[in-house]
Amino acid sequence: MKKKYMILLGALSLASSTFAQTWIWYPGDYEIWLGNQMNNRRTERGAFFPPFWKTDSHYVVVEFSKQLNLAEPEEIFIAAEGKYNAKLDGKLQFGMPETMLLPAGKHNLNIKVWNQATPPTIYVKGKTVNSDSSWRVTYEDKEWIDESGKASDTSATVYMVAGCWNFDGATQRPSQFSLMREPQQPVAQTEQSEGGTLYDFGKETFGFITLKNLSGKGKIEIYYGESPEEAKDKAYCETLDKLLLEPGQITDLAIRSTSPLNNSDNEYTLENSKAFRYVYITHEPGVKIGEVSMQYEYLPEEYRGNFRCNDEELNRIWEVGAYTMHLTTREFFIDGIKRDRWIWSGDAIQSYLMNYYLFFDNESVKRTIWLLRGKDPVTSHSNTIMDYTFYWFLSVYDYYMYSGDRHFVNQLYPRMQTMMDYVLGRTNKNGMVEGMTGDWVFVDWADGYLDKKGELSFEQVLFCRSLETMALCAELVGDAIGKQKYEKLAAALKAKLEPTFWNIQKQAFVHNCVNGQQSDAVTRYANMFSVFFQYLNGDKQQAIKHSVLLNDSILKITTPYMRFYELEALCALGEQNAVMKEMKAYWGGMLKEGATSFWEKYNPEESGTQHLAMYGRPYGKSLCHAWGASPIYLLGKYYLGVKPVKEGYKEFAITPALGGLKWMEGTVPTPNGNIHIYMDNKTIKVKATEGKGYLTIKSRRQPKANIGTIEQVSADTWRLWIDSPEERTVTYRL
Amino acid sequence: MKKKYMILLGALSLASSTFAQTWIWYPGDYEIWLGNQMNNRRTERGAFFPPFWKTDSHYVVVEFSKQLNLAEPEEIFIAAEGKYNAKLDGKLQFGMPETMLLPAGKHNLNIKVWNQATPPTIYVKGKTVNSDSSWRVTYEDKEWIDESGKASDTSATVYMVAGCWNFDGATQRPSQFSLMREPQQPVAQTEQSEGGTLYDFGKETFGFITLKNLSGKGKIEIYYGESPEEAKDKAYCETLDKLLLEPGQITDLAIRSTSPLNNSDNEYTLENSKAFRYVYITHEPGVKIGEVSMQYEYLPEEYRGNFRCNDEELNRIWEVGAYTMHLTTREFFIDGIKRDRWIWSGDAIQSYLMNYYLFFDNESVKRTIWLLRGKDPVTSHSNTIMDYTFYWFLSVYDYYMYSGDRHFVNQLYPRMQTMMDYVLGRTNKNGMVEGMTGDWVFVDWADGYLDKKGELSFEQVLFCRSLETMALCAELVGDAIGKQKYEKLAAALKAKLEPTFWNIQKQAFVHNCVNGQQSDAVTRYANMFSVFFQYLNGDKQQAIKHSVLLNDSILKITTPYMRFYELEALCALGEQNAVMKEMKAYWGGMLKEGATSFWEKYNPEESGTQHLAMYGRPYGKSLCHAWGASPIYLLGKYYLGVKPVKEGYKEFAITPALGGLKWMEGTVPTPNGNIHIYMDNKTIKVKATEGKGYLTIKSRRQPKANIGTIEQVSADTWRLWIDSPEERTVTYRL
After folding, report:
1. Which of B142, B223, B439 to mutate to test the interface with A (most CBs of A within 10 A)?
2. pLDDT of B153
């Protein structure tokens, strides 16, 4: 088995291909297909549970083409997933050629593939001619001929640049992709008085249960739990499996799939992975199970970012956050590993941001963005949720800023346009978005009533930012008309925000406006977003800090999801000390409850099994939810204080803040390097192996640096330009 | 083998399901998937040759639902193609249940299926609960829940009515569909002096070559020909197969597929069917082939229409036309059986019209219309051809008129709207269509220069008719706003036709208008369409007859494709005698050249192997092309003279015309009956088992009828109202 994993490792290395050749496909199509595999693995108590939004699919016929200019003749090897043909200078070759001799000189090579079940992909390997992202692809080559046999010269075919990942070997067929596996043993197993055995794997995990040395005949039932209560509650646990053991074979009763037992040790590993810490297994008397273990399933990731400090609780928060991120970073960034295991745009944008401070795994970001967008026509908001559409736009520009990957924006831009067309087709007479039939206006899971009617200030703020994002991306791809159009729309909407939603008495944006009337309610959402979008002047931002953000009478946020933005807003206002206390109270609170990964929702006022319930179900809550891991992001961006100022960290900003810690140390990854920070109450050390930028320091006297000149910015603020990888050591006074 | 065919026969019976249960799917999706199988079977000299337009695919996740109201509990059986779940009143059942017990009372039953490779389909059989077209389907159920677990009540899901055909048995899985097969033997075989054997199957046919009593080892090559010249031309024949025989197995070298030989008689039948009359087979010396035969592949059709007359040449024309139609009526109506075997809208609309006078096979019409439309977004014209988009619109209303199937129009209407949106998005400032980059302006394969630039009068006439069709369909589905919109657009365009294209000197529509300037050219196309669309007054129609239709100096039409409309226009102008001569000369001409099916193109001025060439290839021409069969339509509609006046023959019009024949007799099918006509130069007999309508008679004196009263319409025209199935016998004077 070891050898198999080694081979897979090649396919799973995370950087984009550096080989001369790789499997290629229509951009976004493999991602959408793989996403369907992922989204359709959800089960609920043994029932298959696909998403309720439109599931798109790949183009089933795709043409790949490449213009060649060969100094000498060359033989190429061709592999494809699907039925295919090959044309050289318009001349079809016999059959599905595995090899082709290309003559020297200028030539056109075309390969066309049909595949209904999995995306059409090809792999070409020659001395100089290799399949890679320099190939063009289209789903519609429009190569008609006239009566004389002459091909049309006005076909207007739309070509894209081929998509790829890291399937660099001829036998690494993209449709055969799977994550890595590693056997793990339970740390404890307890016979239960009512029968059956409870296995504890020590912490939240994800994988396939393996049963060894099976013998006898009869039913086996497996109940999964993120808590022991859940695993032992046969009637209400969220996931389960039922098997029928017979001599030499075993049947998964949910999917009616029968497999032979592994000969040597009568072993069986389940076909679908599950999330759990505990597993409760019962069986009929005729069955014997020798051993229970699991195959941990994961995407190999390098932990390029890290954080350590003097506070062990905070260190543990960072570690559990990183583990939570790793469990939810899979084929895609998913929300939580237990329940739906789906890809959600609002969850994903937070995963991306955390990822930039942990794995810097661009491929997973791009896969997830492609999948969430899907195909045209747009028939609903992203995951049906209005706010999630807006996060999707924002995530594209975030990705560009962190990665500097303009090519991706180019590839995606046409689908950004059609997505925005959908939104613009659903605005009201004020140019604002309101929930229409079919729109899920989500905002947050709140412990209290959230009005979703009329114009929500929160949705307008996100809409405005999305329009600004469209303008920025239009500029990136050279769409001058689009830039102008989106800028105009964004400016018009932005100009309406204060007149419509700002309430002078409340010194805040109200929650919504129905039929032109401001509601009485103030919620945190629009207010905190306008802070870090800088949609309000400094006075109003400070006003919001007190009237909303630090005001306990405003409906509290009980999801880490919105805490992410709430705490980001406070950090942006310089409240690192207050946020540090909140982090320790909130995420520390989960740790005290025994969390080994962070939760979907946490209300410190609840206790015991109350923490497990959600959606009216006793174990409905996910105890490993990506949005629970936000300290990863906050600590990197607002304590280590590192962020890109120009795309791909060509320029960075470093503004470290101890927030009450004695010392901290950590690394923030950049596309091809990293920025290492150490800080205590006297010294700051910075080593940036890539990029240039300012280190900004709060100090009561002029700091001193080993290299470079410190400039004063304001009374207590100083800055140092960093433009080389040598470590800067700065002394300052807190 | 016989038994297998018998079972398939059930699946292939042509009427819509009359069973209590049938396999169901998302409407159009199965049709699109099956069409992909069909369109991707084209090969060119052993190379796979898929279409150059966008190949759409099915929705991969589909939900089927049914509201139940059961008098008593009932057990149902469930089968599905794909991974599925079942919900009763929102509660998911364990696994993929094969049976479910439904309690008495009102309940909601939902079944959701995921299938990437083939369309999600289901089959439900109970005492009263059965899958049929009363089920609703959606690709997006938008069933989100709030935090309490409550499902949304504003999901705005768009439901369609389930699609089905005739897969009425639980084991008749739609994805397993195949046409019927019947073994056929060659009528002659000739050893060739240069080696190899030429087999003649006696007439144009379609199927799979079978090789029997194979022995030895080596390559076998099979060259197909519609003519002996083609089959024997190894270098230029259009289709071929290459096989490698080895002990006990044989490999198709084009698709690299190895099969064992049939044990008992070392037999092998090829995987892909081909069109041919002749097959030339060569092999390496080590190979022995005992016997060559074929499996004729066909869609079983009942010949509901027929025609006989005193002229044996015309009878033969009808028979060869019917055979041509049968060969090209397959999973879909295809253009020709040899070369591309694709589904083309302009070809299909003629097949539909012929079909109404031959098979009246509505299912094949509907399948073809669904496939040709495909899915949104629309990225090109139908088959990339502008005119073909317009024929597609026209074909929908034609189908409604002949079948009376309003349900189909309802199902299709949303895709008619988006198709028309595409067209309207490509009009110029005059509201007219011009060929833009990416538009194939086809018109016809002409033996002379056809200008495709600017505003073609022909395209505007078709566009105008398409807008009128949209208005009619909008009314049918109750879209009052759409009706108004399309009527307005149609009227505006129609009002521009004469001012833009009518040339007083030429007494005709000119061919095109470039930059506001009429061209000098007059072609037949727009002129003949305006005749049977009645876009011009009687005087202008008569003018066209002489200035264009009967004017030999106007570019001649050499495809049966446009002859269809040319002769229809002449018939509509009462020129049955002239058209009869043309039919005998043109189709009779092909018969004299040895045609056993009608051709893609026929120019009487060519001779010998000139008849085989097209597209710059010596055997490029298809000798079995659906559009070659138009006498089927002309004889039914303009000689037997039967057509629907109200949808589904609720009212018919019968206007028989001998056109110079001594006598004729025939049957025209109606949805649930038929109309039988006999006519000689003294007597007309009509028996209509369905519908009501006028029999119109040209007679120099008042005709006499056995039933009913003859009314006078004009000087030499009389009519008789028919409203019962008894045979009417009318005597008249020619």
Report:
1. B142
2. 65
**CATH of the domain spanning B2-176, picked from 3.40.50.1980, 2.60.120.260, 3.40.50.620, 1.10.287.990:** 2.60.120.260
Q: Does A242 touch chain B (CB under 8 A)?
A: yes
Q: Look at residue B145 in the predicted model and tell me its pLDDT.
A: 77
Q: Confidence band (pLDDT; 50, 70, 90) for B12?
A: very low
Residue A120 has pLDDT above 80, yes or no: yes
> Over B32-79, what HEC string results?
HHHHHHHHCCCEECCEECCCCCCCCCCCCEEEEEEEEEECCCEEEEEE
Half-sphere exposure of A407 (CA within 13 A, CB side): 12
Domain A644-731 has CATH 2.60.420.10: yes
Quote the percentage of chain B above a pLDDT of 70: 97
Report CA torsion sign: A527, A533, A535, A540.
positive
- pLDDT band of residue A154 (cuts 50, 70, 90) is low
Say yes or no for a CB contact (<8 Å) between B47 and A93: yes
Q: Which amino acid is it at B399? A: Y
Residue B235 touches chain A, beta carbons under 8 Å: no
Does the fold of domain A180-298 match that of domain A2-176? yes
In angstroms, the first-to-last Cα distance of chain A is 56
First to last CA, chain B: 56
Q: Is A61 on the interface with B (CB under 8 A)?
A: yes
Q: Give the CA dihedral A510, A511, A514, A520, nearest 10 degrees.
A: -60
Q: What is the ipTM, given to two decimal places? A: 0.94
The predicted structure's pLDDT at residue B16: 42
The proportion of chain A whose per-residue pLDDT surpasses 70, expressed as a percent, equals: 97
pLDDT value at residue B154: 66
* A45 pLDDT higher than 50: yes
User: Is domain A306-639 classified as CATH 1.50.10.10?
Assistant: yes
pLDDT of residue A272: 93
| Partner-chain contact A49 B85, CB within 8 Å | yes
- Cα separation, B198 vs B234, whole angstroms: 12
The CATH class given to the B646-731 domain equals mainly beta
* CATH T-level topology, domain B180-298: Jelly Rolls (2.60.120)
Q: Is B503 on the interface with A (CB under 8 A)?
A: no
Q: Do B59 and A54 touch (CB under 8 A)?
A: yes
Q: Which of A51, A147, A379 sits opposite B615 (nearest CB)?
A: A147
Of A58, A142, A147, which has the smallest distance from its Cβ to B52's Cβ?
A: A142
Residue in chain A lying closest to B382 (CA): A142
Please state at what angle helix B312-328 crosses helix B576-592, rounded to 10 degrees: 70
Over residues B699-708, mean pLDDT:
96
pLDDT at A237 over 70: yes
| Measured distance CA(A659)–CA(A579) in Å, rounded | 8
As a residue count, chain B comes to: 734
Domain ranges of chain A: 2-176, 180-298, 306-639, 644-731
* Residues 9-48, chain A, touching B (beta carbon < 8 A): 33, 36, 40, 44-48
Q: Does B4 score more than 70 pLDDT?
A: no
DSSP output for B542-567: HHHIIIIIT-TTS----SHHHHHHHH
Element (H, E) at B113: strand B105-114
Does residue A211 contact residue A222 with C-beta atoms inside 8 Å?
Answer: no
**Distances in whole angstroms, Cα of residue A472 to Cα of each of A307, A346, B331:** 33, 21, 50
Contacts of A117 in chain B (CB under 8 A): 116-117
Q: Are A48 and B85 inside 8 Å of each other by CB?
A: yes
Residues A131, A168: contact at Cβ < 8 Å? no
pLDDT in tens, B581-639: 999 999 999 999 999 999 999 999 999 999 999 999 999 999 999 999 999 999 999 99
